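Mods, move this if it's the wrong board.
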Amino acid sequence: MKRLLSIIILSSGMLFNQEKIDIDDIRNLSILELMKIKIVTAAKNPEDLLDIPASVAVITAADIKKYGYRSYLEILNHTTGFYMINDYHYLGHKNFGVRGFFSPGSFGNVIILVNGVPQLSDEYMDYPDTKITVPVEAIDRIEIIRGPMSVMYGNGAFFGAINIITNQDSEKNSLTVGGGNYGENHGTIHFSGKTGEIEMRLNAGYSKNTGIDVKYSDLTSNHDIIEYSRNDINATTKNMLESGKKYVDMSFKKRAIFGLFSFNESFTEVLDGIPSIGQGSEITHIAANMNLGFDKKINSNLTIKGLAGYYTHSHRLDYERIIVHAGDMDAKLSRALDFDITANYTNEKYKILFGGYVRSVEELLQIADFPLDGLNRADGEIMIPRNERILTKSLYHQTTWKVTHKIDLMGGFRIEHLSPYTISYNRGLATLDTTANLPPENRTNITGRVKPPGDGYALTPRFSLLYKINPKTVIKLMVGSAIKQPTFMDNLRQIIMQRPFLNVQKIQTYEMNITSILRQNCRTNFSIFYNKLYDLITATNEFSPESGWTIFSANSGKLTTIGTEICTQIQIHPKLNSKFSISYQKTVNDKAGFETYKPGYSPDLLAFLFLDYEINETLTISMKGKYISEIKTEWVTDTSPEAGTRLGEAIPACLTLDGNLMISNLLQSKFNLALGMKNGLDREIRYPTTASNTWIEKGYLDFGRQVYINLTYDF
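Not the wrong board. Structure tokens:
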């Protein structure tokens, strides 16, 4: 046991101290008491939800169990302001639009943390679900902060921050198994223990499904691309869109020292440019995070926290296209280190935070081998030279001043610096014969020095005013900005295409939020927001049999979004709870000549309904519904705006309903059983065409009706 404990401590890292919340107690809290749950994400320090200068949503473990959520992606897809798009992306990622804005590619506009640890992938500066495989049974709660969070979290926190907090403080041990149609099967285990002063936790889980089986002709009317890929016109996606994931985390706590080690592995079958054949094109992601740190209370007013991390992330994409086992392959490896330190000073009048952050990408290497495309077109490597790194350094500060017992003022800023770095790009035929007279197109060697705009410096401010009308009603006025630097891959494309480097993406946002507890059993949250986005970066990734691949990035212009969100939670009866939310936003393309063309991937209306009824102490039944209005695809043109066309067909409005029956405390309170159904109306769920697979002009299909069973044993 001592040897095992030593291994865990040596390979673990920091877990910032989370507020202990007993899940059984949460079920019995009133709405007013729920509003007093401490939120740690917004200011890196526990705060009451009513006192946070941001629009906040909290999903607890009780919510997850009641409504039968099966993944954190499903939770986000039922959160006010968020909507998912699954475009079978070649990296396996799912993506989300937020408050009317969607950036094709991978999800990089909201920072995602697990227990306060950023889940960043450095190549695309994104937070892909393929390396965030936490099973829902391991989650205590998810804190979702909407609005720019660059002051706290820096580059990438464009639309907010999401913190997935696992059950590090749970004293219960549990085992969960389950399954359903579409070949779904899953299992998780949670174990906690204590040795002397050291507390330890373990979470582990896996899941797998067989994906959907539809005809390629249901995705595209382009029969030529189906035949080009060596598929029959009636070929389907059977065995082409399977997915699975594994997860392990181990943590320890001893006085002021915290640690966490997590391991993620996932595989996803994808479509990339053309239909797959054989067993499908499959990408496997492996990521490991090791963190170590401390949370020390110096005195009653001052707390100092530190977090050091080591991160690895790799993927291997094995293609099955045109010829089975042709050997087409893409592989990537990255390693990074970071350190974050904060000092929090609090008294009756002030909350003052100072922080510093450093991240160093120590290695970034991608290797491709595409025999079918020929050595002169695709084979090669992309890398940071071995003696270099990508270095980001930040200083940040935030102060909250309690002017009166009714008025709080908050102001903060972050100064961030991205150092210049080198990208090496090598492609094509290599030979030891230095006298060989090879055509220039057979070999490409490019080395480019990335010089970030503004000499790499960026300043992001944030301000807010909170006015407490009474202890149960707060008005929040917020002004903030955020940035997103061009990614490593954006800069690579500019080097290859010999184009100028891109500008930093920027957002300026203004928001008014009113949170009110009308009664002990009723809460309303109302927001009006105005977002102005500048120098947005888009990436185009197209393939044609005649010209091959066309890949480039560009600053595409400006967008403006005006929107409102309303969320009302009512306890209709001691055993009957309801929640309804609606988001309406209008996004306009401010780029000259495009003002009359509705931006792609921006639905005007999102609505959610949640109902749960506790039949007795054992039985709880619930229902959740989602409505999303029509979604248009991107307006694309090579010449004048009026000469353009939509990338694919518009996706009509869609309503989905899910149900869940939870049976608790079976067999001496040791077992809990859940029976559920997703997409109970069996609606056709489609997502709009993106640049990831432009040939799928009819839109990407998702699962039909799903049924599942889930059994949990507490021990």
